[in-house]
Design goal:
elongated; 2 domains; 165 residues; 10 helices; mainly alpha; 4% strand
Length: 165
């Protein structure tokens, strides 16, 4: 006897920003009470589904408004790609935030083009490559990050809506 696969509700992305804001309390409750194991198992499929509907190049809100952390391997890889000394790369593009992480000095990201393409995409920071964490347990375990990301990322909105009862 096989178990029935859970069916998820349809999600309309029209006016998602307004709906996301209105659903803050619902998302807080969801992230507190959702059965973790089942949700983590569902995330890769929901992530794929979200990105069939969401075009990052039409949005780029993450790159326009926030900075990833630039970890040491990211700095080494990107500065080598740009043919810059690491210290010059840091001095040119990065600041230390109040948590001790390197972040871009200014937003939008200096590597974001007018067409919303990333000029260092192939060597981008690991935070960028993993964002918005909709296929990882980070989505459920780092609730504050998820609650922030849902305010500006339609893919996070989509996945949280799919996970909501």
């Amino acid at each position: 006897m096989s178990k029935a696969k859970k069916t998820y509700k349809e999600v309309d992305l029209e006016n998602w920003e307004m709906k996301s804001k209105a659903n803050t309390k619902k998302y807080q409750q969801l992230l507190k009470t959702i059965p973790q194991a089942a949700a983590i198992k569902a995330l890769p499929d929901l992530h794929e589904e979200a990105f069939e509907k969401v075009d990052c190049l039409s949005c780029a809100a993450c790159c326009k408004n926030y900075s990833p952390r630039f970890k040491t391997p990211d700095i080494k890889r990107i500065s080598k790609h740009l043919r810059m000394r690491e210290s010059t790369f840091i001095d040119t593009y990065l600041n230390l935030d109040n948590e001790g992480d390197y972040v871009v000095k200014n937003t939008p990201c200096p590597f974001l083009g007018a067409d919303n393409y990333c000029s260092i995409y192939e060597v981008r920071p690991s935070d960028c490559a993993r964002f918005p964490y909709t296929d990882e347990d980070v989505l459920l375990k780092r609730k504050n990050i998820t609650l922030k990301n849902v305010t500006f990322c339609p893919a996070v909105y989509y996945v949280l809506e799919k996970l909501s009862p």
